[in-house]
Design a protein that fits this description.
Mean pLDDT of chain B: 88
Strand order of the largest sheet of chain B: 16-19-17-20-15-14-18
Shape of chain B: elongated
CATH topology of chain A: Rossmann fold
Number of strands of chain B: 22
Largest sheet of chain A: 6 strands, mixed
Oligomer: heterodimer
Shape of chain A: globular
Number of helices of chain A: 7
Mean pLDDT of chain A: 89
CATH superfamily of chain A: P-loop containing nucleotide triphosphate hydrolases
Number of strands of chain A: 10
Structural class of chain A: alpha/beta
Number of helices of chain B: 25
C-alpha cells in the first residue's frame, strides 16, 4: 500500500542543511498495524506527515496504492487523501465550535456527501461507538478519552483504508489509552484498516504487528 | 453545507466576541455614515424632479459683465414672462414674484407673517405642474385658480394652520394690508426638495407696485424678486425663446455696456447645483463638488472600517491557524476554506449593515436638524437602492475579506497544527503598517480640516468689520412715513436703554441691499461700475460707529435736498482713482437711482457690507427718507430685555396693523456663515467617527501584539525592564506610524483647505500650529488607546506569562 523510497527531508539552517529524515525506505502492506518509535526529534511525525501527504520530502519517491504521489497534481493528491486517509492527533484537534455530531460530520461535508446519506453515516458511527448520548456536546464538555474517541470516529467516518495516528494516546491516562488502542486493534483485525501510529510507549506499540525504530532520521533495523 | 457553515460561523463569531464587536462597531459606523451620505446625496439630486418632462423646463437667467467680474442673476424683470408669451403664443412662459415673507391677516384677527409666498400667473401650473406628487390638487381647479386678481391657492399645511378643519375654499385673506384675496384651491405641501418652495400662491393679477415698495412692476429697469420659467416642447419654441430674450436685451440697453448682458435659459434640474446663481436662488444651492466630497468622505470612512477588518483578521488568523490545520487534515480544500472565511466576513458585514441601517435611521433626525433639510429614509426602500446596497455589501465583503481568507486558506496544515506557524512575513507586516498609516492619514486630514474651518469661523467672529455689530438691532418699519417715524422716535426718546437710533434702509450688513450702477468722469466708459447705496439719516454714523476720514458727515439739510450730497467709503474713492480722501471731496458721481448726481461731502473708512466671502465694495451713504424701512437701534448691553420690550410697545402703538419684526445685526451676520457652520459640523462628525474607528482597530491590533509578545515581555521583566520601557516598546512602532500619517496628511490637508479658503475674500493663514495640534491630538489619542493594554501587559507578573509557554 505504501512504498517510500529514499526519502530525505532537510531544512537549511544558517546555510547548512539540517536533516530530519535521511534516506528512509519503507514498505507498508495493506492490513498492517505499524508502530513507529523513536526519541523526540527523530523525525517520526515528519515521516507520518509525508505518508499523509500533508508534507513533502526534499527528495525521494512515494507510491500510495500504486500511484506516484509526488507526481500527482495537488487536486488529485487531495482526492486520494480524502478517499483513503484518516488522521488522528495527540491533541485530538477537534473543532471547538462544533458539537460531537458536527465534528464527525464535517469531513463528509468537505467531500460533498448528500444530506440524507450523511445523516445515516454519522448515525451509524454514533451507534457503533456508543456516543449517541454525547452527540450534542461540545469538545470542551468531554473528557480527554472521549475527545480522542470522537477524533478517531471523525477519522473513520469517510471509511479510510489507512489511519495515521500521531501519538494518539499521548494526552490520555493509561485506561483511556488502552481503550483507544483496543479500538485500533479491532479496526485493524475486523475491518482490515491499515494503521500507522507514532508512539513513545512500548506497550502501545505492542498492539500492532510491526514496529520500526527511528533515530536521527534513519530507520534502525 | 450552507446551513452547517453558517452555524459554525455564528458560533465562531460569538466565541470571539472582542474581534466580532470591534469589527461590527467599525463597519456599522462606516456603513451608517455612508448610508446617511447616500441619503443626503439622493435628496440633493432629487431636487425638482417631480415635474413632468423636467428636461423641457427652464428658468430665464442673465449674466452681466462688470469691470472685474461677471454677475449672474436668476432674477429677471417682471414683464419678462408676459413678453415671451406675447412674442410667440407657442412659448409656455410663466412669470412669478417670490416674496420671502408677507403679512397676512384673517378677518379681524391680528396679522402674522407668512414666509415664502409666490405670486404666479395663470400659466404657472402648465409650466411647473408638480405632476410627480400624488393627488397634488386637494381642492380647486388648476386651470382657473390663478386667473384674475384676488385668488389664493394654499398648501395643505397652510390651510390647516389658518382654518383648522374648516373648508378653506371661499375664505378671504388680507395680504400685506394691500390686497384682499379669496382662497380658491388647496394643493399638497411643496416638498422641501424644490428650488422654489412656497406656502401660498397668489394670482399674479393681485400683484402690484405696492408689494415691491412702490417700484413699477411693468418696468424693465430692475429685477426685484421676479423669476420667469418656460416649458419648451419643441425646437421651434426653443429658438423663438432665445430670439425673444435677445430682443429684451436689445430693446432695454441704455449703453454699450448694457448690450454685453446676456439672457439665457437655465435647465431646471441644474438650478439646485449652479453656484453662479447662489445669491439669487430662492433656496440654498449646493455644488456637485460638495456632494462628491461627501461621497469621498464616506468611502474613506468605510475603507477605514474595512482596514480594521483586514488587520484584525490577519492578526487573528494566527490564533485560528490550528482550526485551519484541522480542517485541512480532515479534507477541506483551499477553495472550501476560502469560501468559508469569505462567508464569515459576509455574515459579519451583513450584521454590520443591519446595525448600520439602524444607526443611520437613528441619526437621520439629527442630521436633518444640523443640515436643516427634510431628508427621509424612503429612498432606502427603492429597488435601485436595494440592488445597489447588495452589490456594495458584496464589494465590501470582498475588500475586507479576500486578503485574510486567502492567507488563512493558504496555511500549511503541518506547521499550523504544531503552532509553529512563522510569524507574519515582512510583506504582510508592511501591508498592515501601510493600512494603519492610511487610516490615520485620513483621520488627521479630517482633524486638520476641522481645525482650519473652526479657526476661519472664529475669524468671522473676531474680524473687525468697520462698524459696530454687537447689541444693535434692526426693527422693520412697514411704511416709510416721516410722521410715523417721528412718532416712533418720540416714544423712545426717554429710553435710557437706547444709545443711538437711526432710520435707514438697513445695517451695513443687512438683508436689504440696493446695488446700483455708478458713473463718474474719472471712470472709463463702456465699463459698468457698481456701488452699494445705503439710504440713511444723520444718526447712522453714530449708531454703527463709522469712522469719518475726510470732509463732513451728513446734515439734516441734506435730507431736504435729496441727491445733493453723499458720503462714500474709501473703496469708492479708490475706484475713482483717489488715494487721498481729501481729494475726493466735492467730486460728483452719478448713481443709477433717479439718475442722481450728488457731490461727495465726506469719506468714511471702509466697512463690510456683506459676509467675509466678499470684498469690500464701493458704498454710498445717501440721505433718502423714501427708503427708511428700518430703524437701526444700538442698545446699552446691560438692560436689553427691558429696552426691547419698550421698543416693541412703541412700535405697536405706531403700527398697530402690522407684524413686529426685529433682528440682531450680529445674528444676521452669523446666518451668512450657515454653509461654513454646516461644513464644520460635518467635518467634526467625520473626524470623530474616523478617529474612533481607527482607535478601536488599533485597540484590537495591540491586543494581538500583546499576546504575541507576552513571552518577550516576561523575559524582559525578569531581566529588569521597567514598566514604562515596556509600554514604550509596545507603543513605539504604532506611534511612529501615526507620525508618518501626519507627514502624509499635512500637505494634502494644506492644499485642500487652501482651496476651501479661496471662497473667502478675507481668510486666515494656515499656520504650522494647526498641523502640530492635529498631530499631537492624534498621537495622544493613539497613545491612550495603546497604553491601557500595554500597561496591563507590562505590569503582569512575568512568572505567569513565562510559565504558560
Amino acid at each position: 500500500m505504501i512504498q517510500l523510497q529514499n526519502i530525505f527531508k532537510w531544512y537549511n539552517t544558517a546555510n547548512r542543511p539540517t536533516f530530519i529524515l535521511k534516506d528512509v525506505s519503507l514498505t507498508i502492506d495493506e492490513g498492517a498495524f505499524l508502530s513507529i518509535m523513536g526519541p523526540s526529534g527523530s523525525g517520526k511525525t515528519t515521516l507520518l506527515n509525508i505518508m499523509g501527504m500533508l508534507d513533502q520530502p526534499s527528495e525521494g519517491s512515494y507510491h500510495f496504492m500504486g500511484q506516484d504521489v509526488f507526481n500527482l497534481k495537488e487536486k488529485q493528491r487531495k482526492e486520494l487523501y480524502k478517499q483513503y486517509i484518516g488522521f488522528v492527533f495527540q491533541a485530538y484537534h477537534l473543532l471547538d465550535e462544533l458539537t460531537v455530531y458536527e465534528n464527525i460530520e464535517t469531513p463528509l461535508l468537505y467531500q460533498g456527501v448528500k444530506s440524507a446519506e450523511r445523516k445515516a453515516m454519522v448515525g451509524d458511527m454514533l451507534d457503533r461507538f456508543r456516543i449517541v448520548g454525547k452527540k450534542d456536546l461540545f469538545p470542551s464538555q468531554l473528557s480527554g478519552g472521549q475527545q480522542q474517541l470522537v477524533g478517531v470516529v471523525r477519522a473513520l467516518i469517510s471509511k479510510p483504508k489507512l489511519i495515521l495516528a500521531d501519538e494518539p494516546t499521548g494526552n490520555l491516562n493509561s485506561t483511556q489509552g488502552e481503550e483507544i488502542m483496543q479500538l485500533f486493534q479491532q479496526l485493524n483485525k475486523e475491518e482490515g484498516v491499515t494503521i500507522v501510529q507514532v508512539t513513545h510507549s512500548e506497550k502501545n506499540a505492542a498492539f500492532g504487528n510491526r514496529i520500526i525504530q527511528l533515530l536521527d532520521g534513519q530507520v534502525q533495523d | 453545507m450552507f446551513k452547517h457553515t453558517f452555524k459554525q460561523i455564528f458560533r465562531s463569531l460569538w466565541r470571539h466576541k472582542g474581534f466580532t464587536g470591534i469589527n461590527l462597531l467599525g463597519l456599522s459606523l462606516g456603513i451608517a455614515a455612508v448610508l446617511l451620505i447616500v441619503l443626503i446625496g439622493h435628496y440633493e439630486r432629487s431636487f425638482d424632479t417631480f415635474h413632468t418632462k423636467s428636461q423641457q423646463l427652464f428658468r430665464v437667467v442673465s449674466e452681466t459683465s462688470r469691470a472685474d467680474q461677471i454677475l449672474y442673476n436668476a432674477n429677471v424683470p417682471y414683464p419678462t414672462g408676459r413678453f415671451l408669451r406675447e412674442r410667440d403664443p407657442g412659448i409656455l412662459a410663466s412669470q412669478i414674484h417670490f416674496a420671502e415673507e408677507m403679512q397676512v391677516r384673517l378677518g379681524e384677527e391680528a396679522p402674522f407673517t407668512e414666509e415664502q409666498v409666490v405670486f404666479a400667473d395663470s400659466l404657472f401650473f402648465q409650466v411647473l405642474d408638480f405632476a410627480g406628487i400624488e393627488d397634488f390638487w386637494v381642492a380647486g381647479n388648476p386651470a382657473t385658480a390663478l386667473q384674475g386678481p384676488g385668488k389664493v391657492v394654499l398648501t395643505e399645511s397652510t390651510a390647516r394652520q389658518y382654518f383648522g378643519s374648516e373648508d378653506p375654499i371661499g375664505k378671504r385673506l388680507l395680504l400685506d394690508n394691500k390686497a384682499e384675496a379669496e382662497v380658491v384651491g388647496v394643493v399638497r405641501d411643496i416638498p422641501q426638495n424644490s428650488h422654489l418652495p412656497f406656502n401660498m400662491l397668489v394670482s399674479y393679477g393681485t400683484f402690484s407696485n405696492d408689494f415691491i415698495g412702490g417700484l413699477d412692476v411693468n418696468s424693465w429697469g430692475f429685477t426685484g424678486n421676479g423669476y420667469a420659467y418656460v416649458r419648451l416642447q419643441d425646437e421651434r419654441t426653443r429658438s423663438a425663446t432665445h430670439e425673444a430674450l435677445q430682443a429684451i436685451v436689445l430693446s432695454n440697453a441704455k449703453s454699450e455696456a448694457d448690450l454685453k448682458m446676456k439672457m439665457y435659459l437655465q435647465p431646471l434640474p441644474e438650478i439646485h447645483f449652479d453656484l453662479a446663481f447662489e445669491g439669487s436662488n430662492p433656496t440654498y444651492t449646493v455644488s456637485s463638488n460638495y456632494l462628491n466630497m461627501l461621497v469621498l468622505l464616506g468611502i474613506f470612512i468605510i475603507l477605514i472600517a474595512c482596514i480594521n477588518y483586514i488587520n484584525l483578521s490577519t492578526s487573528f488568523a494566527f490564533t485560528k491557524s490550528k482550526e485551519v490545520g484541522v480542517r485541512k487534515t480532515i479534507g477541506a480544500s483551499k477553495k472550501q476554506l476560502f469560501f468559508h472565511y469569505m462567508l464569515e466576513t459576509f455574515t459579519l458585514t451583513c450584521a454590520a449593515a443591519v446595525l448600520g441601517l439602524l444607526l443611520a435611521l437613528a441619526f437621520l433626525p439629527t442630521v436633518n436638524q444640523i443640515l436643516d433639510k427634510g431628508i427621509t429614509a424612503a429612498p432606502l426602500l427603492e429597488l435601485d437602492f436595494i440592488a445597489g446596497s447588495l452589490l456594495a455589501l458584496l464589494l465590501l465583503t470582498f475588500i475586507s475579506g479576500a486578503y485574510p481568507a486567502l492567507i488563512m486558506a493558504g496555511f500549511n496544515p503541518v506547521s499550523s497544527l504544531k503552532n509553529q506557524l512563522a510569524l507574519p512575513g515582512k510583506s504582510s507586516v508592511l501591508l498592515r503598517k501601510s493600512l494603519v498609516v492610511f487610516q490615520f492619514s485620513v483621520s488627521i486630514l479630517l482633524i486638520i480640516c476641522t481645525l482650519v474651518i473652526a479657526r476661519q469661523m472664529e475669524y468671522f467672529q473676531d474680524k473687525e468689520l468697520g462698524f459696530i455689530k454687537e447689541a444693535v438691532v434692526e426693527v422693520k418699519l412697514p411704511e416709510a412715513d416721516s410722521v410715523k417715524r417721528a412718532h416712533f422716535q418720540s416714544l423712545l426718546q426717554n429710553q435710557t436703554g437706547i444709545q443711538q437710533l437711526s432710520f435707514c434702509m438697513g445695517a451695513p450688513v443687512s438683508d436689504n441691499g440696493l446695488g446700483v450702477s455708478m458713473e463718474a468722469p474719472e471712470l472709463p466708459e463702456n465699463t459698468s461700475y457698481e456701488a452699494e447705496i445705503i439710504p440713511c439719516d444723520i444718526n447712522y454714523k453714530a449708531t454703527f460707529g463709522l469712522e469719518l476720514l475726510a470732509g463732513r458727515w451728513l446734515l439734516p439739510s441734506d435730507e431736504k435736498n435729496i441727491g445733493s450730497a453723499v458720503v462714500v467709503n474709501r473703496q469708492l474713492i479708490n475706484t475713482l482713482g483717489y488715494t487721498d480722501p481729501k481729494e475726493a471731496i466735492g467730486k460728483r458721481i452719478t448713481l443709477g437711482i433717479n439718475s442722481m448726481r450728488p457731490a461727495i461731502v465726506g469719506v468714511t473708512e471702509d466697512f463690510h457690507t456683506s459676509s467675509l466671502h466678499e470684498d469690500i465694495t464701493p458704498v454710498a451713504l445717501l440721505p433718502f427718507p423714501y427708503f427708511y424701512v428700518t430703524a437701526g437701534i444700538r442698545l446699552h448691553p446691560g438692560q436689553m430685555r427691558n429696552t426691547l420690550a419698550e421698543i416693541e410697545e412703541a412700535w405697536r402703538t405706531v403700527f398697530p396693523e402690522h407684524v413686529y419684526e426685529i433682528s440682531f445685526v450680529d445674528e444676521t451676520l452669523a446666518s451668512r456663515y450657515e454653509q461654513e457652520r454646516r461644513d464644520y459640523q460635518l467635518f467634526k462628525a467625520f473626524s470623530v467617527i474616523s478617529i474612533f474607528i481607527c482607535c478601536i482597530g488599533l485597540w484590537g491590533l495591540i491586543a494581538f501584539v500583546v499576546v504575541r509578545k507576552t513571552k518577550e515581555i516576561g523575559i524582559r521583566k525578569v531581566l529588569g525592564a521597567s514598566i514604562s520601557s515596556i509600554v514604550m516598546l509596545i507603543s513605539k512602532d504604532f506611534l511612529k506610524l501615526v507620525g508618518i500619517a501626519l507627514l502624509i496628511a499635512s500637505p494634502l490637508a494644506w492644499y485642500y483647505m487652501n482651496q476651501w479658503l479661496q471662497d473667502f475674500a478675507y481668510r486666515i493663514e494656515i499656520g504650522w500650529a494647526v498641523f502640530l495640534i492635529a498631530g499631537l491630538f492624534a498621537l495622544l489619542i493613539a497613545f491612550l488607546t495603546i497604553s491601557y493594554q500595554a500597561i496591563k501587559a507590562a505590569s503582569a507578573n512575568p512568572v505567569k506569562s513565562l510559565r504558560t509557554d
